[in-house]
Design goal:
The chain is mainly alpha-helical. The protein contains 32 helices and no strands. Among the domains are: 143 residues, no CATH class; 81 residues. Part of the tripartite ATP-independent periplasmic (TRAP) transport system.
């Protein structure tokens, strides 16, 4: 195995830190850096060990996780942006270049986080009747949690949390339906701190139990070469065709998204190779950046990782992880299909070529050199779909990364895979008698690799560094999840979620009534219109909230507040969860805060706002598909409405509609589209996408003049010449 290019890793990290608040780490002097690295390594090993050998008691596991996460944030993230680009001078007031205030906050965070597990045996007698020390510790944790979240993910989430706490406290002063009896500070702290409905709730539990492990797996899988294999395979498949690098970007981002789960990380990793190639073959700079960022947002909706949302759905909906993965398959494919068709038609319109033969990798060479790197993902999926827990699957996937990283001997790689499959078949995968000797072998392999050569030593150190980096990448989402617990806790304490749902549905009904009053009765349906406007308002709020709040936090907030509104209108919980999740992800390419698009623009030297607008247009399939699976739940495969005829009707309509809309945006179908053709085919695409046979036929009838015109012109016009 060859080491990753250090220059590429450093460049990618700097871009991620520039555009992702969760990765803006402050520089530290060597001594402090080693101390912090040791703590990050301990956090990774804690989660790795418990995933394989059993989780601790719920409160203890979450408390230890949060103590590490919050404590590390005060050491890793500076209080002010000015301190992010330089090592602060040391002194008695700043030991190790970290101020005494930050050290004190780190200690306070750790103590307050561990207090609840410490008093756990007495907790049943203290919930509802907190002592003065309980309120003090809870207040400390809330304060340090808000500050840690501000440093790691920005202001919006803490501001929202403070707002909802003020709402809980000043309930009697609220207007109209929002009024409630109010709660004292002691009651607020009791609910948020001592119960599982607040900070120590589902959101923190999912991050501590699932998300951390998959972030770590993604970093390790990338380090051992799986990301490079995906990009090379995408180049082999699509590189030679019209606009080849753009299609490589789409396929590569789809594959890399399986292990990344991050829009920005996906953009800078895949884009470092594809964006320059797209510009080189003739794409405009802003379009090249937009293609990569639009494709990369698919990383959060592509199974099996899907950021943190998949694991949260498992807990919220009480369904299996396999159910969520199956439900995500077709909608994710629709997103990539929409981006692909716009890229393809843009290339045909401009007459762009693919990569020259000398830049095309050999398929045989790519597979021969990289096939073993697929083994960790194969192990993860085999364990997962054998009915084991997601964290156990991540444990064996991480272990497989260590095997591949330490050895590229086919017999060793395949032997490990065979051993895992045998352990599953024999029913001993979770038993120490099986895992102990196998892990002992992996450890011996790492030691042998380390002492064998200098190259082997570098390989093992790179794997250790991946454990450190994986933990560093995960602490921001850990703080955000705990802070979202405040919002969820206040919603359950005050019941404001159902009040907001009532307000939203009532307002949507008023808008719907306006249309019912002016349109023919046979053309409109009051219930359908109310649902449509509720979905529209929910989508807008998701996008706006996503402009300043991480996707995971956005999803939890909207599920807590908006999903009940959709439920009142008959939308199934799984469908409602997917709807708000998709629109939360869309914020990454929606101006004015399109972070993935801005990262791509920086790499391409393009105008950020223009890139964001183009990326949103390219990702329009993702914006339309959620409406499709609300009205046609069969698309999600696992809903009660699923039948093969209904599934094919919904999917075929969506594919044709997205194809027509892509042609309208690109200005090209079989030949260049005239203005009237673009408008007509745009209008026709919407009823075609709607999952109803009658509307689909109406849409096709509207589009038929354009189809006929294009066929006739294609027969008479020569193909466009290369630009």
């Amino acid at each position: 195995m060859s080491l990753p290019d250090p220059n590429v890793i450093i460049e990618n990290r700097s871009l991620e830190e520039k555009f992702d608040p969760e990765m803006r780490f402050r520089p530290l002097p060597p001594g402090t850096a080693w101390l912090v690295a040791g703590m990050l390594l301990a956090l990774s090993f804690f989660h790795y060990y418990t995933a394989g050998f059993g989780l601790l008691r719920e409160a203890t596991h979450r408390g230890i996780h949060m103590a590490f996460v919050l404590g590390l944030i005060f050491l890793v993230f500076s209080a002010f942006k000015d301190d992010q680009n330089r090592i602060a001078p040391s002194g008695w007031w700043r030991p190790g270049s970290i101020s005494l205030v930050d050290w004190a906050l780190a200690v306070a965070a750790a103590v307050a986080s561990l207090y609840v597990p410490w008093i756990f045996n007495e907790l049943a007698f203290r919930v509802g009747n907190p002592s003065a020390i309980d309120v003090l510790m809870g207040t400390i944790l809330i304060v340090v949690l808000l500050e840690a979240t501000r440093r790691s993910v920005g202001w919006p989430l803490p501001v929202i949390s403070i707002g909802v706490m003020l709402y809980a406290y000043f309930g009697p002063s609220m207007p109209g339906i929002l009024q409630h009896p109010g709660a004292s500070w002691s009651n607020i702290v009791n609910h948020l701190y001592l119960t599982s409905q607040g900070i120590y709730g589902i959101a923190l539990g999912v991050v501590a139990t699932y998300v951390f492990h998959y972030v770590l797996f993604g970093v390790l899988a990338t380090r051992v070469g799986l990301g490079k294999l995906f990009i090379d395979l995408a180049t082999v498949v699509a590189g030679r065709y019209a606009g080849g690098p753009a299609k490589v970007s789409i396929f590569g981002s789809a594959l890399f998204g399986m292990i990344s789960g991050s829009s920005i990380a996906n953009t800078v990793t895949v884009g470092s190779l594809t964006i320059p190639a797209m510009i080189r073959v003739g794409y405009q700079r802003h379009f090249a950046a937009a293609v990569e960022s639009a494709a990369s947002t698919g990383g959060q909706i592509t199974p099996p990782i899907m950021g943190a949302a998949a694991f949260l759905m498992v807990e919220f909906l009480n369904v299996s992880y396999q159910t969520v993965i199956l439900a995500a398959l077709v909608p994710a494919s629709m997103h990539f299909f929409g981006v692909f068709m716009q890229v393809h038609l843009e290339a045909k319109r401009a007459g762009l070529k693919g990569l020259p033969p000398e830049e095309m990798p050999s398929a045989v060479k790519v597979i021969r050199e990289g096939w073993q790197t697929i083994m960790p993902l194969a192990v993860l999926l085999i364990v997962l779909f054998s009915g084991f827990t997601p964290y156990l699957a991540a444990f064996w996937g991480i272990t497989a990364c260590l095997v591949v990283g330490a050895s590229r001997v086919p017999a060793v790689t395949m032997g490990f895979l065979a051993a895992v499959i045998a352990g599953i078949a024999a029913g001993v995968l979770t038993q120490l008698v099986f895992s102990g000797p196998l892990l002992g072998f992996v450890l011996a392999l790492l030691v042998y690799t380390y002492i064998k050569t200098d190259a082997g030593k570098a390989l093992v150190l790179d794997l250790v560094d991946a454990f450190v980096v994986g933990a560093k990448y995960a602490i921001g989402v850990g703080a955000a999840a705990a802070t979202v617990g405040i919002i969820v806790g206040i919603v359950t304490l005050t019941g404001v979620g159902f009040k907001i749902s009532f307000i939203v549905t009532s307002f949507a009904a008023q808008i719907a009534q306006t249309f019912v009053d002016v349109l023919p009765v046979w053309l409109v349906d009051m219930k359908a219109l109310t649902l449509f406007f509720t979905l529209l308002m929910t989508a807008v709020v998701c996008i706006l909230l996503g402009c300043g709040v991480p996707t995971t936090a956005n999803y939890i907030i909207m599920v807590t507040v908006a999903a009940p509104a959709l439920g009142l209108l008959g939308v199934q919980p799984l469908v409602a969860h997917f709807f708000v999740f998709y629109y939360g992800v869309l914020a990454d390419i929606t101006p004015p805060v399109a972070l993935a698009a801005y990262a791509g623009a920086s790499m391409a030297g393009a105008d950020p706002f223009k890139t964001g607008n183009t990326a949103f247009r390219l990702g329009l399939g993702k914006a339309l598909v959620p409406f499709v699976f609300v009205y046609g739940p069969a698309m999600l495969l696992v809903t009660p409405e699923f039948t093969w005829p209904s599934f094919f009707l919904v999917v075929a309509g969506a594919l044709v509609g997205i194809l027509f809309l892509s042609a309208a945006f690109a200005g090209y179908a079989l030949t260049r589209l005239q203005t009237w053709e673009r408008w007509l085919i745009s209008i026709a695409s919407l009823p075609i996408i709607a999952p109803d046979p009658l509307t689909t036929l109406i849409g096709l009838a509207l589009a038929s003049p354009v189809i006929l015109s294009q066929i006739l012109k294609a027969r008479s016009e020569p193909a466009p010449r290369p630009a």
